[in-house]
């Protein structure tokens, strides 16, 4: 049996972390202790106690417990549980715990609706993904959602000490207090990213490898680099990319460098490269048009170098973008134009702008070639008739775009005055 299962808490008081849910005076705890358990959704990262709390709740009520893991269950498994309702063996109802419910498709989740609607089944499910995206809305509307958070270092250390005591009992090792032991436990607790299960796995390896004489050096080896590895399909990865972009957009180069470091130290090079290329145009844009050119060069250099050297040009790109003036005017202008396209406006463009399906003699009829005119500009309609007065682009308030605005106003004024 894995160490995490051997020391799994049997009461809510033994659970480490989640004090916002499990403290004596919390509403969640009072509801559980009342015995009237509602349908609930637990969401949060792995190894923070979702399954443990669900099992404690199930054992505390009088309902028949059934467990399903959505990673390997099918629709027939759900139907089998539903078929048990109403029998003499489940007269008090069934409490169904579904772990990793995000792996159930819409049809599988819908099959539960009738039974949780009339109370024959009380549903508790857990997910590591955002439930508002991963769970069918009709299930959510009938459930209460509770967030489980990463476990704090001091709380993780409590679980580690309990596990260490158990390991000593099982392997008949002497459990003695020492500075080396405390440093090792501190190191594991600090580097498990709030995941108790992961911390316990590292402790077990450390213990077995040292015969119980755990120390800081062994803890480093047991930990490896798991604290730095990212789930590239999970929320943490996208949260870090979001933090990187929002920090640059907010002109905070220090925060941006931190999120870049989290991504690169986790071994991800391509995602921050792509995001930095987007940021250069989306958030800096026309306020400093050369930023996109420079960042493209730095990203190309980073890809050629690979990690760990790639951190050097990418950190340069991050600081450049974060400290540059900002403008999203071009990006917003495109979105405004795209909105008209999606609603079917501007279907018929002016004939003199068209290049196809016209006789050669009429191809440019009515079109005025601007270059022979002063400032290479002439007043002429380019948009379709139904949107001819649209203004999608608004000049930003930065130096570069304001200079362009002054030039635009000057050439238009000259044309009007010379008419």
Helix and strand element order: HHHEHEHEHHEHHEHHHHHHHHHHH
Instruction: Name the structural class.
Output: alpha/beta
If strands are numbered along the chain, what order do they take across the biggest sheet?
2-3-4-1-5
Helix % is 40-55%
Q: What would you call the shape?
A: flat
Beta strands, count: 5
Tell me, rounded to a whole number, the average pLDDT. 87
Head-to-tail CA distance between termini: 90 Å
Total of DSSP H or I helical runs spanning 4+ residues: 20
**Poorly predicted segments:** none
Proportion of residues in extended strands = 5-15%
Chart the SSEs and their pairings.
Blueprint: H1 3-6, H2 19-22, H3 27-34, E1 40-43, H4 50-60, E2 64-69, H5 75-84, E3 94-99, H6 106-110, H7 113-117, E4 121-127, H8 131-134, H9 137-141, E5 144-147, H10 153-170, H11 179-190, H12 196-210, H13 216-223, H14 235-249, H15 253-265, H16 270-284, H17 290-305, H18 311-323, H19 329-342, H20 399-418
Parallel strand pairs: 1-4, 1-5, 2-3, 3-4
Helix pairs in contact: 10-11, 10-12, 11-13, 12-13, 14-15, 14-16, 15-18, 16-17, 16-18, 17-18
Tell me what you see in this structure.
This protein is an alpha/beta fold and 419 residues long. The chain is 51% helix and 6% strand. It is built from 20 helices and 5 strands. The protein has helices at 3-6, 19-22, 27-34, 50-60, 75-84, 106-110, 113-117, 131-134, 137-141, 153-170, 179-190, 196-210, 216-223, 235-249, 253-265, 270-284, 290-305, 311-323, 329-342, 399-418; strands at residues 40-43, 64-69, 94-99, 121-127, 144-147. It has a 5-stranded parallel sheet, with helices on both faces. The radius of gyration is 31 Å and the shape is flat. The mean pLDDT is 87.
């Amino acid at each position: 049996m894995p160490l995490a299962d051997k020391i799994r808490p049997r009461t809510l008081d033994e659970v480490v972390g989640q004090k916002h849910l499990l403290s004596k005076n919390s509403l969640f705890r009072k509801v559980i202790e009342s015995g009237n358990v509602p349908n609930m959704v637990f969401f949060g990262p792995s190894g923070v106690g979702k399954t443990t709390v669900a099992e404690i709740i199930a054992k505390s009520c009088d309902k028949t417990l059934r467990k399903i893991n959505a990673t390997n269950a099918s629709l027939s498994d759900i139907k089998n549980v539903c078929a048990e309702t109403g029998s003499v063996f489940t007269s008090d109802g069934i409490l169904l715990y579904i772990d990793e419910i995000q792996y159930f498709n819409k049809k599988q989740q819908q099959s539960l609706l009738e039974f949780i609607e009339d109370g024959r089944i009380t549903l508790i499910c857990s997910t590591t993904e955002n439930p508002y995206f991963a769970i069918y809305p009709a299930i959510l509307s009938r459930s209460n959602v509770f967030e489980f958070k990463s476990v704090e270092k001091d709380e993780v250390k409590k679980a580690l000490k309990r596990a260490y005591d158990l390991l000593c009992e099982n392997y008949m090792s002497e459990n003695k207090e020492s500075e080396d032991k405390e440093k090792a436990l501190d190191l594991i607790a600090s580097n498990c990213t709030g995941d108790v299960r992961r911390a316990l796995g590292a402790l077990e390896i450390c213990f077995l490898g040292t015969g119980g004489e755990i120390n800081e050096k062994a803890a480093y080896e047991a930990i490896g680099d798991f604290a730095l590895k990212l789930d590239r399909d999970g929320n943490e990865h996208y949260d870090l990319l979001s933090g990187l972009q929002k920090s640059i957009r907010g002109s905070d180069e220090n925060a941006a460098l931190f999120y870049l470091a989290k991504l690169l130290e986790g071994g991800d090079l391509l995602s921050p490269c792509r995001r930095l290329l987007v940021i250069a145009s989306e958030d800096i844009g026309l306020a400093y048009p050369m930023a996109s050119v420079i960042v493209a060069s730095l990203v190309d250099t980073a890809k050629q170098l690979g990690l760990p050297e790639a951190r050097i040009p990418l950190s340069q790109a991050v600081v450049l973008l974060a400290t540059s003036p900002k403008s999203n005017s071009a990006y917003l202008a495109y979105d405004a134009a795209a909105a008209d396209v999606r609603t079917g406006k501007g279907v018929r463009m002016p004939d003199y702008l068209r290049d196809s399906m016209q006789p050669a003699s009429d191809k440019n009829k009515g079109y005025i070639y601007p270059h022979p005119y002063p400032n290479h500009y002439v007043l002429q309609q380019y948009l379709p008739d139904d949107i001819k007065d649209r203004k999608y682009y608004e000049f930003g308030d930065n130096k570069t775009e304001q200079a362009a605005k002054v030039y635009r106003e000057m050439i238009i004024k000259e044309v009007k005055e010379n008419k």
